[in-house]
Amino acid sequence: MESKVTKIGVLTSGGDAPGMNAAIRAVVRTGIYNGMEVFGIMRGYSGMIDNDIVPMHSRSVANIIQRGGTILKTARCKEFFEYEGRKKAYGNLKKLGINGLVIIGGDGSFRGAHKLSEEFDIPCIGLPGTIDKDIAGTDFTIGFDTAVNTAVEAIDKIRDTADAHDRLFIIEVMGRDAGYIALHSGIATGAENILIPERKTDIEELVNGLLEKERRRKLVNIIVVAEGDRGAEDVADIIKERIPSADTRVCVLGHIQRGGAPTCMDRLIASRMGYSAVESLIEGRHNVMIGIVNNKMHYTPLEKAVKAKQKISDDWLKIVKILAS
Ligand code: ADP
Ligand code: F6P
Predict the structure, then answer these.
(1) Which end of the chain is more exposed for a tag (fewer CB within 10 A), N or C?
(2) 45 CA closest ligand 1 atom index
(3) DSSP labels, 183-220
């Protein structure tokens, strides 16, 4: 028989994402509501290894739902890749009697959690917290909506100045190997071209399209490029060489996309997922990632959550082509 989860640890790991605080708050308050002791593990797996673990109370998470970043801090931790690091981390959890974990992070963090749960038999629940939305088993990840809205706001502003000067802007957005931020923000801002790693860019087609627009005296163009595709500077170099008359500028949005107050959507999914993480531990639904699919909670075994990526629908790619023509 599985033992009852009575003391849980919550941590944020990998790149931070707006809404992580809302998720921490939900885990802490749902845990306390159910009579559990809740601990905050600082700086992701680093704090687990360094024994930087603090008791959390209802008041510890007051006034944070609206804040970006993460009150628990986050980190990337090399030692956790090694068995010895994980053993040390588990030793610290054991000393405190922590017998359940909630890990808020991306697929890398889930890979670590999966190993820990297999090696030391501690139940782990993953919550998808990443602006990249590059995790299968969920329609949205915590932080994606905020990041996309930040990108949209920035691109709208860039279009104002692009329009005033008849310029071509190449705007690079984040997303690691995934093109979701580029795709969503590009469609929402009416970008003329969107370059994403999931679809091979035909440079000839891109240049010919721009030349055709130039012939039609359409001089304002916004090209949104995902960082996982080729870099914005690379694209600019090609365009400057092939179309010297185009007044071209580059803007890399960068880490601005990771900060700021989470949107209502991110606060909501983070709260639902955090609540569901604790419920899952109580119900014995262990070693799963909690997602939301078709507005319902969805549970994916951790080992599957780390392997699969979301797929970009062909329909979306068609929309980009038609609307930008
Ligand atoms: P994200 O969770 O945002 O994808 P990372 O890929 O940087 O971020 O992973 C965060 C942390 O998770 C790493 O620094 C490491 O501590 C842990 N981790 C990632 N992959 C593994 C792995 N294969 N084995 C053990 N730990 C891992
Ligand atoms: O995974 C989130 C993310 O912001 C990616 O979009 C980006 O490639 C990466 O993290 C940047 O990482 P760092 O925090 O190391 O600059």
Answers:
(1) N
(2) 16
(3) HHHHHHTT-SEEE-TTS---HHHHHHHHHHHHHTT---
